[in-house]
């Protein structure tokens, strides 16, 4: 991370007083014990208590906090629920955490226009809960949906089981209000479907808290499908299951969800929630088909045919809603279930072209042997979005480092086969240093110029996403003259 600025740390009391003038009451946290609660996000391998936490309740307060921090050159890390798995909301020793937890109200549910306007701290599942009694839901469904905030979902462009058919966050957000680092409040999109000008909403979605702080969100609501049934398909190898996934999509079928678990994950999930998964298979697919009943029946028949041709040795179709929920319960509990079989695990996130699944799974097994670390695979197979969970023990010296090296190899493998470094968890701190394996220096500089247009002093979530900090003035024209580095005061890390 960037070297903390000792001057800012020395001014802590002054900054606390200024923030208290904006956010009264208990909205400013500065006591070391209380700050400890914010020292990491879902990527708990990295920890750093922040300088201060501020919990505003109004847009005016967010704007005033950012304006002050911009003027005083204080760094700011936005935070929703802190479930990021890439260290996106990891604090800085010389920065404040701007927590959006108090922005937890649903402002408007507009069934006529099939959308809802909510504050960014509302949980992902909270949106569906508010509209399900009328037969609607919000489609992107990260496994963390009970806890993660919609603001965090936008920052990470989060996905989930249903994104194969219904799109990621970016396809389901219609508008946002955001506050820029200088305190300016702006709106992008709204209840209408088309927006004028550049697609800034698209740019902001997935910008990992580096461009602005989201203070209001308008999301699309979908009608719940008439029927949904799940199909369990077991295979003797992960390669055969991967082949089946590619064949189903190639046949023009887009399931509502298509997930894969390998043997270690199947056993862990079965031990944990008794979903009725077959223990003898090497890989299990959960394929959900949804839509009108006749269509679902036909698609189940087609998927079953394809699976048989690819060597499926087990098949079971959910008979009712209860059984469908049980099929999914194992998948949804797979992460905590794996947590029971290993002291620690590291969840990777990369995406590959679907047809390369069998090859990537085979090479991952070879890497697992090379590094001497077990892997459990639970992932969004239909999207080619892999989530290898590398099992390790942080108390064994050197094991975390070995695990990180193994993880980096997996992500490079994803890029090598024509995929990308991340599917839905973001770059954050975790994949920052791997960005050059995906992007050229020209690409990275152009992306940083976008950052400069929003936040010229790099105060919003610095140290995340970009492998090297360039001051905006320096971008693209670095000349070393007689060994003299320009802007020698810039921390380069
Ligand atoms: C068990 C588990 C399962 C998970 N499963 C999935 C999954 O299936 N799919 C998936 O996509 N992710 C998954 N995640 C990752 C995580 O839940 C998502 O990335 C989620 O969107 C993060 O939301 P959050 O509110 O916790 O954000 P945080 O962790 O608080 O922050 C994440 C990023 O968003 C920024 N941010 C937060 N709020 C705002 C805001 N209002 N304005 C601007 N920037 C903001 C932060 O600066 C940070 O960069 C999982 C995590 C866990 C722990």
From TrEMBL:
Keywords: FAD, Flavoprotein, Oxidoreductase
Domain of life (superkingdom): Bacteria
FAD-binding PCMH-type domain boundaries: 46-224
Pfam families listed in its UniProt record: FAD-oxidase_C, FAD_binding_4
InterPro entries associated with the record: FAD-bd_oxidored_4_C, FAD-bd_PCMH, FAD-bd_PCMH-like_sf, FAD-bd_PCMH_sub2, FAD-linked_Oxase-like_C, FAD-linked_OxidoTrans_Type4, Oxid_FAD_bind_N, Vanillyl_alc_oxidase_C-sub2
Tagged with keyword Oxidoreductase: yes
UniProt cofactor(s): FAD
Protein name: FAD-linked oxidase C-terminal domain-containing protein
Native organism: Aquibaculum arenosum
């Amino acid at each position: 991370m960037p070297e903390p600025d000792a001057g800012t740390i020395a001014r802590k009391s002054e900054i606390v007083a200024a923030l208290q003038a904006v956010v009264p009451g208990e909205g400013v946290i500065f006591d070391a014990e209380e700050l400890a609660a914010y020292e990491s996000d879902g990527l708990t391998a990295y920890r750093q208590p922040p300088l201060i936490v501020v919990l505003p309740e109004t847009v005016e307060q967010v704007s005033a906090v950012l304006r002050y921090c911009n003027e005083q050159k204080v760094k700011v890390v936005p935070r929703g629920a802190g479930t990021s798995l890439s260290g996106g909301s990891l604090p800085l020793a010389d920065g404040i955490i701007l927590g959006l937890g108090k922005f937890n109200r649903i402002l408007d549910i507009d069934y006529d226009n099939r959308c809802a306007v909510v504050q960014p701290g509302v949980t992902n599942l909270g949106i569906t809960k508010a509209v399900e009694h009328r037969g609607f839901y919000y489609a992107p469904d990260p496994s963390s949906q009970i806890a993660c905030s919609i603001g965090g979902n936008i920052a990470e462009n989060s996905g989930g089981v249903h994104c194969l058919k219904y799109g990621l966050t970016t396809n389901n957000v219609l508008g946002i209000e955001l506050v820029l680092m200088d305190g300016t409040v702006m709106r992008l999109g709204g209840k209408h479907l088309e927006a004028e000008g550049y697609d800034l909403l698209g740019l902001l979605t997935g910008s990992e808290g580096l461009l602005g702080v989201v203070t209001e969100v308008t999301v699309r609501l979908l009608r719940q499908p008439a029927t949904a049934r799940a199909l369990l398909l077991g295979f003797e190898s992960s390669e055969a299951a991967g082949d089946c996934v590619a064949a189903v999509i190639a046949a023009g079928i887009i399931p509502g969800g298509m997930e894969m678990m390998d043997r270690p994950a199947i056993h862990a999930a079965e031990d944990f929630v008794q979903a009725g998964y077959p223990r003898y298979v090497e890989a299990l697919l959960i394929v959900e088909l949804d839509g009108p009943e006749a269509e679902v029946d036909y698609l189940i028949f087609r998927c079953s045919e394809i699976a048989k041709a690819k060597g499926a040795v087990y098949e079971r179709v959910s008979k009712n809603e209860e059984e469908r929920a049980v099929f999914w319960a194992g998948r949804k509990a797979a992460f905590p279930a794996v947590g029971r079989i290993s002291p620690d695990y590291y969840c990777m996130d990369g995406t590959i072209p679907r047809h390369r699944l069998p090859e990537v799974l085979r090479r991952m097994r070879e890497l697992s042997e090379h590094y001497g670390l077990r892997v459990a695979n639970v992932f969004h197979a239909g999207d080619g979005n892999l989530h290898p969970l590398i099992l390790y023990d942080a108390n064994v010296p050197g094991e975390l480092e070995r695990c990180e090296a193994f993880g980096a190899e997996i992500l490079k493998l994803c890029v090598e086969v024509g995929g990308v470094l991340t599917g839905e968890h973001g770059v954050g701190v975790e994949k920052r240093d791997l960005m050059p394996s995906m992007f050229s220096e020209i690409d990275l500089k152009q992306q940083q110029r976008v950052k400069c247009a929003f936040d010229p002093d790099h105060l919003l979530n610095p140290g995340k996403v970009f492998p090297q900090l360039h001051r905006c003035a320096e971008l693209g024209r670095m000349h070393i003259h007689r060994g003299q580095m320009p802007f020698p005061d810039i921390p380069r890390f």
